[in-house]
Structures are given as structure tokens and as C-alpha cells.
Design brief:
Layout: E1 2-7, H1 15-29, E2 32-36, H2 41-44, E3 48-51, H3 80-91, E4 93-100, H4 102-113, E5 118-122, H5 138-159, E6 162-167, H6 174-183, E7 187-189, E8 195-196, H7 197-209, E9 215-220, E10 225-226, E11 237-241, E12 247-249, H8 252-264, E13 268-272, H9 284-303, E14 308-313, E15 316-321, H10 322-327, H11 334-341
Parallel strand pairs: 1-2, 1-4, 4-5, 5-14, 6-9, 6-13, 7-9, 8-10
Antiparallel strand pairs: 2-3, 11-12, 14-15
Bound molecules: 6-O-phosphono-beta-D-fructofuranose (F6P).
């Protein structure tokens, strides 16, 4: 059988490890593997190339994706479904392995309902996909953010400053919570809990009144924030839209830093980690998880488990309904966040 692999959405450390694993496992099943260029776009535009053991060798540790990626949604393109199905028929593609997050896998769910034989692999540094304990890429992003917080800690302490660290997390605060806990943050602000800046400023003032002269504040980019008393909380965006038509986030760190300095009088600086969190080599943990997902996804195709996604449950890789992964977001549970809060202040 001929199978095709695509990577969609924001890139993520470990994508190449999945691709390599699919190709290597395909030998067992006698599959020929095609790589689709730039996510669903590869199927819309019939743009692909052959993936072999040779062309996928030496990519396990490499960040990014050798296939390229995009946020193009075939259901938002004129005659998108027909174009996809035409490419599938023309090339005799027996199944598609879609490696992606919420957007890519929502499209995969619909494609499956339309008759495409598709298997999903959960990818996102945000770790917000339901039905899997973890996505690959998250561990790497947390490690990068934790390293940054450690470095900011020493300079914050030396200068007696407040340091605000803006991390990714459009809908959820997994990266903020994990890296904040690992880095000993004094305040963590997440999309799950709307924030009143007056409370954060008071909290910092109380902490400094007890003799601690520096603070680390970690804020997820998608956190809803109230700056002016009485007004509703809002998300901070650059004003531009991304390829999928969603507001481009970013800027909340700057806003929080300016407001904290104004309200507390403490010198406050900001560091925005941005795409550094997604770039470069995956951690050993993510390489192993991505490899296990890739092998399992290939086996799912062999077993005919279509409309499903490889997922991590405990330490096992299992198959779950694709629709379950995207029907709702996996948020940081209050009980988990309460543990992080023990160390605030
Ligand atoms: O992959 C999800 C994510 O990390 C979000 O947290 C963030 O909003 C988004 O990527 C930003 O990606 P880009 O700048 O590539 O649109």
C-alpha cells in the first residue's frame, strides 16, 4: 500500500522523529511512503516526494519538519475536499498519517467523516490536545522555558528586579505551569484563570515587603487580563491574523511588565521566549515519544484503524477516536495548578 504523511500547524520538536519512525516501520508492512509538502496543502496541490530510509536518515534529532508545514485548512479552500480526494485517487494513496495539533486534526476528523482513510498523531508544544496524556514537543518547550527562567532568576536577584517571562500557550497554560514550577516562579498567569493586574501587583508588593527583593512572573501569551478596574479581561494580540485567520498573540508580557512597574515602583523587565520554544533539537523524552507515536500510527494503518489517533495513556501508546482529541481542549486542572500556587510569594 502507498501511504502519505503530512505535518500541519506550528512546527514542533519531534516532527522529524515521527516521520522517520513511520518510514522505518513501513518496511515491516510493505508500505511505500510519500511525504506531503506543507501540511494539507500537499494534498490540495498534489505536491509530494518519496520518503525512504535514505531520505529520512539523520533527521531524528533535527527540529522543524523536512516536509514543511502550513495552517491551510482544506475545508476553507474552494473545492478543497474534491482537490484532496483527487490527489488521493490520482496517486493511489491508501491512507494518510496526519501529524498535527487542534487545527490539523480537526480537519483530519472531518476528512475521515468524508471517507479519507486517515490516522492522527498528536503534536503541539502547548499540550492542549485531549485524549492523550502528553503531546510530543511539550517536554522540549518546557525545558527551553525552564532554562530561560533559571537564567533570568540569577540576573533578577542580582539587580533586585521583577522579571516577566512570556511563554507560548494560546488556550492553555501547560508550558507556563510546568516551566514556572520547575523554575520556581513567584507568580504564574495562565489562560485558564483570568487575571486582574491589581491583584498581581499587590501580590508582588506583599512578597517584597517580607524582604524578598526580586520576583519572577511567568505569563502564557493567551492569558486574559484586566488592566483597568471594572473593565472586562482581554487577550493581548498584535492586531494581525495568522494563516488560519486566528489573532496573532503576543505582547502580554510587555503589558504586564509596564503595569507592574507603574503600580509597584519596582524595576520590571520582560523577556519574550516566542518561537525559541519551538525551535531546535527535541529532548530525549520527545524523541522517544515521537518515535513511539510514529511506529504506532504505522501499525494503526496496517490494522485499518482509521479515524483514530495514536495517544499516550500512562506509559502506553493506544488508539483513540480522532474526534475525542479535538472535541475539547485539555486545560490545566485546578488541582494541578493549586500545587504551583503553593510556591507563589
Ligand atoms: O503551536 C501552538 C502555538 O505554540 C501557540 O501557543 C501560539 O499561539 C502559536 O503556536 C504561534 O505560532 P505562529 O507564530 O507560528 O502562528
Amino acid at each position: 500500500m502507498k501511504i502519505a504523511v503530512l505535518t500541519g500547524g506550528g512546527d514542533c520538536p519531534g516532527l522529524n522523529a515521527v516521520i522517520r519512525a513511520v518510514v522505518r516501520r513501513s518496511t515491516l508492512h510493505g508500505f511505500e511512503v510519500m511525504g506531503l509538502r506543507d501540511g494539507w496543502k500537499g494534498l490540495l496541490e498534489d505536491n509530494h516526494f518519496r520518503l525512504t530510509r535514505e531520505t529520512t536518515s539523520g533527521i531524528l534529532h533535527r527540529g522543524g519538519t523536512i516536509l514543511g508545514t502550513s495552517r491551510v485548512n482544506p475545508f476553507k479552500v474552494d473545492h478543497g475536499l474534491e482537490k484532496v480526494m483527487r490527489t488521493v485517487d490520482r496517486n493511489g494513496i491508501g491512507a494518510v498519517i496526519a501529524i498535527g495539533g487542534e487545527g490539523t486534526l480537526s480537519a483530519a476528523t472531518r476528512m475521515s467523516q468524508e471517507g479519507l482513510k486517515v490516522v492522527g498523531v498528536p503534536k503541539t508544544i502547548d499540550n492542549d490536545l485531549n485524549a492523550t496524556d502528553f503531546t510530543f514537543g511539550f517536554d522540549t518547550a518546557v525545558q527551553i522555558a525552564t532554562d530561560a527562567i533559571d537564567r533570568l532568576h540569577s540576573t533578577a536577584e542580582s539587580h533586585k528586579r521583577v522579571m516577566v517571562v512570556e511563554v507560548m500557550g494560546r488556550h492553555v497554560g501547560w508550558i507556563a505551569t510546568y516551566s514556572g514550577m520547575a523554575g520556581g516562579a513567584d507568580v504564574i498567569l495562565v489562560p485558564e484563570i483570568p487575571v486582574d493586574l491589581a491583584n498581581v501587583a499587590e501580590h508582588i508588593q506583599r512578597r517584597h515587603a517580607t524582604g524578598r527583593l526580586f520576583s519572577i512572573v511567568v505569563v502564557a501569551e493567551g492569558t486574559r487580563i484586566r488592566v483597568v478596574p471594572g473593565e472586562p479581561e482581554h487577550i493581548v494580540t498584535s492586531g494581525a491574523l495568522d494563516e488560519a485567520g486566528r489573532p496573532r498573540l503576543g505582547g502580554i508580557g510587555q503589558l504586564v511588565a509596564e503595569e507592574l512597574e507603574r503600580r509597584t515602583g519596582f524595576e520590571t523587565r520582560v523577556s519574550v521566549l516566542g518561537h525559541i520554544q519551538r525551535g531546535g533539537s527535541p529532548t530525549a523524552h520527545d524523541r522517544v515519544l515521537a518515535t513511539r507515536f510514529g511506529v504506532h500510527a504505522c501499525d494503526m494503518v496496517a490494522r485499518g484503524e482509521f479515524g483514530k489517533m495514536a495517544a499516550l495513556r500512562g506509559n502506553d501508546i493506544v488508539s483513540v477516536e480522532l474526534s475525542k482529541a479535538t472535541s475539547e481542549l485539555k486545560r490545566v486542572p485546578p488541582k494541578f495548578f493549586e500545587v504551583a500556587q503553593v510556591f507563589f510569594g
